[in-house]
Amino acid sequence: MPETANTFRIPKHRRHVPVARSQVRKALADWGITDDLADDVTLSANELVTNAVTHCQVSYAQVKVTLTLRGPYLFLEVYDPDRDRLPEPRDCAPDDEGGRGLALVGRLAGAWGHAQQKHTKCVWARFTLPERTHVPAAL
Q1: Within a 10 A sphere around the Cβ of 57, how many other Cβ atoms?
Q2: How far is the CA of 138 from the CAs of 2, 8, 47, 54, in angstroms?
Q3: What pLDDT band is residue 124 in, cutting at 50, 70 and 90?
Q4: How far apart, in whole angstroms, are the C-alpha atoms of residue 3 and residue 85?
Q5: Distance of CA 10 to CAs 6, 64, 108, Å?
Q6: Which of 51, 56, 77, 87 has a CB 3.0–4.6 Å from the CB of 82, allowing a cystine?
Q7: Phi-psi domain of 99 (left: phi exceeds 0; alpha: psi -120 through 50; beta: other)
Q8: Candidates 3.40.50.150, 3.40.120.10, 3.40.80.10, 3.30.565.10; correct CATH number of 4-128?
Q9: 48: buried, middle or exposed (CB in 10 Å: 19+, 13-18, 0-12)?
Q10: In the chain, domain spans
Q11: pTM (2 decimals)?
Q12: Which has the higher per-residue pLDDT, 100 or 92?
């Protein structure tokens, strides 16, 4: 299966998280992914983008979101320019209002992690595509 990707950017502000969620959902629908996998990827994107806009301390930054279909996998990557603030899962008390995003992504995705690059960091999640998924050669 050839690699297919969709990339977009949003301003680093909480009000743009729904825009990212909508863009992810549209890209998945364009690829014919509309089932539980689409829900899992969209929810994971929501969590990772929310973390990026919440914790990135670089002013006037943008968050880049990339979805890639590669072989039997769908990769979700969220980039922000605060390369030294790496995500850390944490234990949360039952009454905590936040802090469960990475644990949720860990349950929804087959794997997740992060990578520091020269000017950015990337937090990624990998999902296994169902065998029946047909990926268009070009979008």
Answers
A1: 11
A2: 9, 17, 28, 34
A3: very high
A4: 30
A5: 14, 7, 23
A6: 56
A7: left
A8: 3.30.565.10
A9: buried
A10: 4-128
A11: 0.89
A12: 100
What tokens appear for 126 in the block?
């990998």
Helix, coil or strand: residue 116: strand
In terms of Cβ atoms closer than 10 Å to its own Cβ (0-12, 13-18, 19+), residue 6 is: middle
- Provide the strand spans (E) within the chain: 4-11, 62-70, 73-80, 111-116, 121-128
What does the DSSP 8-state code read for residue 131?
A: T
Q: 3: which 2 tokens?
A: 């690699």
* pLDDT category of residue 93 using cuts at 50, 70 and 90: low
Distance CA 105, CA 45 (A): 9
